[in-house]
Amino acid sequence: MSDPLVRRMRPYERTIFGEMSGLASRLGAVNLGQGFPDTGGPPQVRKVAQRAIAEGRGDQYPPAHGDPDLRAAIVEHQRRFYGLPVDDDGVVVTTGASEAIAAAILALVEPGEQVMVLDPYFDLYAATIALAGAERIAVPLTAETLRPDVAAMQRALTSGTRMLLLNSPHNPTGVVFTGAELAELARFAVANDLLVLADEAYEHLWFDDNTHVPIATLPGMWERTVTVGSGGKSFSFTGWKVGWASGPADLIAAVRVVRQHLSYVSGGPFQPAIAAGLRLPDAYFDGFRADLAGKRDRLCEGLSALGMRVIAPQGTYFATTDVRPLGFTDGDQFCHRMPHEAGVVAIPLSALSDHPQVSAPFVRWAFCKREEVLDEALRRLRGWLG
Ligand code: GLN
Fold it and tell me: Residue 174 and residue 171: Cα distance in Å, rounded?
């Protein structure tokens, strides 16, 4: 029988994350590929979920747009951290940030219109743009330094471009856009009257002198921006699949329409728990960052000592390295040999890219793992490369 899968989804049959996690478990390799922590999130948040299950809260469908208390906590969070004027009608709870992204694209972009993404990009963007019958324009980050390149974006723009999909802190590179870069991106969006989908799943994961500034806070941006957040990333409960979108009521009303026909609702007992997470004191968020910064340093120093050029992660829990100094030209080949020869798994940026001339030499390593796991990966790599 010919392939029953609809044509527009055929390029997206497999994800590099599924492939690499599968390889890791089959070979017993250390998995620094898919981005998920190997320790649980804050115990007080887990307790709220346990209590919710014990008491039967969330056994049945939560309200379509989310548990009212979680919606209130999202409003409070967006105001507390960023001063954004979010109201209850500007919030929708989703099945992870993934569904928020899919629903926003399906709700706001007509078939045939274009969504501009910065390349390399999280693979779900390409798949959901295709699902919407839209077209992606992937504009490469600057070669070598991997920064947004607004001049290149301007050249790639067409009259059919409807949406700009931004992601900072940026997966897979670990880059956090500077104030100047955000201002330039905002001016570009306003000048060309683009909607902006801001995937800010890693909003609480940034290091050193960096900070997270939602692009919705910039002049002219609030009214055109849907901002996406992730309980999985902010509280290390990726399996709970609680995410959200927020923004002006008219855009969120559109996202709500589509979203209710995707998963309808999900995560009944987890929604009040994520509400508790969003209300944790600053000490939680500071401690989370400090712990990850230590892991980042541990892994990056080790990778650098092995001879790779490390693009120091400013945010996310991913480190990107250039493997050319090791004598490899192709990160994809590197990542497909390494599980077998070294027993370590990482992600080639070329799998998340339409522009191999920029992305091919780069490999992404997740450092949200226990210290002994990072050390074991480095020990194996030293044996392989040394
Ligand atoms: N966001 C995670 C990553 O980039 C994984 C998401 C996924 O596997 N769908 O690794």
Answer: 6
Cα atoms in the Cβ-side hemisphere of radius 13 Å centred on 227: 30
User: Does the predicted TM-score (pTM) go above 0.85?
Assistant: yes
From the list 283, 232, 226, 294, the residue with the least C-alpha distance to 95 is: 232
**Strand bridging mode 242-246 / 91-95:** antiparallel
> 309-311 and 242-246 as β-strands: parallel, antiparallel, unpaired?
unpaired
Q: Report the nearest-CA residue for atom 7 of ligand 1.
A: 17
Task: Determine the distance from the C-alpha atom of residue 209 to the mean position of all C-alpha atoms in its chain, rounded to a whole number.
Answer: 21
Residue 34 alpha carbon, nearest atom of ligand 1: 10
Enumerate residues 6+ apart whose C-beta is below 8 A from 7: none
Query: Is 325:306 a contact under the CB 8 Å cutoff?
Result: no
Closest to 242 (Cα-Cα) out of 229, 259, 225? 229
Q: Which of 101, 123, 171, 365 to mutate to test the pocket of ligand 1 (most atoms within 8 A of CB)?
A: 171
10-residue averages of pLDDT along the chain (386 residues): 92 95 97 94 98 96 97 98 98 98 98 98 98 98 94 98 98 97 98 98 97 98 98 97 98 98 96 98 98 98 97 97 96 97 98 95 97 98 94
As for ligand 1, residues whose beta carbon falls within 6 Å of it are 17, 34-35, 122, 171
